[in-house]
Every structure is written in C-alpha cells, then in structure tokens.
C-alpha cells in the first residue's frame, strides 16, 4: 500500500542537547513519517524543543522507558514503527533499511545491530558495558538456541502485528531485553541490520547506571527464564537440591548398608528434606510448563484473530482509497 503510515517513536528524558538534531535527521530521511516524542518528566526544555521542531509531543508521567513505550503502543496507530533514543547515538541514515525489512515481510521486528561492526566498542567507554552486553546476549542465545548479535539496542523497527500483540511488562530500560526474548519465544521473524553507533555528544549524559541497571537486566532475564521456560528453570534448581541431598544422604545410606543402623540422624533428616524439596520443585516446573504451553496456544489463537482483523482493516483502507 502506498499510504502505509510510519511512526517514529522517541522516548525522551532530558535530551535537550540532541533532540532537535534527532528529529531533523528523521524528518530528512523519512519525510512522510509521523514523529512522536514522549517526554518522561524532563527537567530541561526537551518538550518545548521537540514541539518547535514539528514533532507530535506528549508527556508520560510514569518514570521509565518501559512505561513510555507501553503508552506509545497504546496511543499510536501505524503500519510500521521505528523506535529510537533521543540521544543521537543511532543514525537516521539506516532508517530506510530498517523499514524496508518490515515492508518486505522479512521481519516482524528489525534490530539495529551496534555490535557487529565494532563501532559500539570503539565509541562507548563506560566500564563493564561490553561485559554486560555479552553476558545478556550469551544468556539469551543459549536459552533459545539463537544467534542474536545485539540484544539491548534501542534502535528497533516493528510491524503493526508485533506492536499490537506485545505485552509490555518492564517499566524501565529492560524493555529492550524483553522485546528480544518475546520475539524469540513467540517465533516472530527477526532481522538484524548492522549500524554505526556513535557516542553521546559532549555535555549529554547517559541515564543508565552500570551496576544497578545491570542487576535489573539480569533479574529480568531470570524472571523471563522462569516465566517462559519454567520446566528448565525449576529443573535446574531441583537438580541442585538433589545433588546436595545426595551429598548428605549417601553417607547415611552407606552407614545403614554396612551396620543396619543410622547414627547420623541430623544428616538423614536434612537429606530427606532436600530430596523432598527437589521433588516439589520438579513438580512445580511440570505444572507451570503445562500452564505456559496452554498460554502459548491461547496467544497463537489470539494472534490469528488479530491477523484476521488487520487483514479486514487493510481491505477497508484500500477500498476507501479507490
């Protein structure tokens, strides 16, 4: 369709130094796109600058990038969505390539990959960020047998189906990890496009805290591991308690076989408790795995219904434009 609508989503918090350039760059590269800036309680004049540059500007009082993206997904109607940070670290020059992957049907979510060409490692000088990125990436890739190069990039494109079927659960910047895990778990089509990352200009400061936010991301991965793959999650913990049960229980069993008596009563009680707890964890994993499987089936059925509704919507738009 020639009248397909593209929405540029720019969540912002204190980006007065860069927001004008970001808006202007995307106006130049995608002149037909609607640019939305959601201001997340900025204390500078980000809101006023964005408004003066012709963006559609709204305020989101709930702090956190996840909260902003959630409201954007509720409010904004489009055929294709491009999410980018307001700090001028992602080049607008790649936007056409990202949108093309969505329009051609090659991707439901397209990822602007900062890591493959090495520009992120060259530009970003913050301590432990390389380590954190690799830890998160490797954890998710092993969990889903995938080969995603950049899990935490803030430069992403989505088609309408992905946006309208994505449940935003994270309130903060962990939303980027959530996007990737959701797409892998629900078997959406992913395409990664290498981009040139550039560090923030002088005077612009990152809102991320390396240590506290890193812990939040790891906790998010653990939570989603539990939610999406409960059998594996609880089986691992069950195995740990089972092994501890063996450590304390084998000497007790060995003593009973040799003497016919048990003198290590505390060890026997502890070993029994550990084994019972291990079994309960395994049973919990089996039950939750059944629940998650049924939830996935329900999600797929809802996705079919949404697909039918979107097909009818597109037919109506086409008939109206004739």
In short:
The chain is α/β, with parallel strands linked by helices and 322 residues long. Helices cover 56% and strands 11% of the residues. Strand 2, helix 2 and strand 3 form a beta-alpha-beta unit.
Strand order of the largest sheet: 3-2-1-4-6-5-7
Tally the beta strands. Answer: 7
What percent of residues adopt helix (DSSP H or I)? 55-70%
Described by the principal axes of the CA atoms, the overall outline is elongated
What does this structure look like?
The structure is a single chain. The chain has helices at residues 19-29, 46-52, 65-75, 95-103, 119-123, 129-144, 160-164, 175-185, 210-228, 230-259, 265-321, and strands spanning 6-12, 34-39, 56-59, 80-83, 109-113, 156-159, 190-194. It starts with 5 loop residues before the first strand and ends with a helix. The chain is an alpha/beta fold and 322 residues long. The chain has a seven-stranded mixed β-sheet, with helices on both faces. β2 (34-39), α2 (46-52) and β3 form a beta-alpha-beta unit. The longest helix has 57 residues, at 265-321.
Topology:
Layout: E1 6-12, H1 19-29, E2 34-39, H2 46-52, E3 56-59, H3 65-75, E4 80-83, H4 95-103, E5 109-113, H5 119-123, H6 129-144, E6 156-159, H7 160-164, H8 175-185, E7 190-194, H9 210-228, H10 230-259, H11 265-321
Task: Write out key terms for the chains shown.
322 residues, alpha/beta, seven-stranded mixed β-sheet, elongated
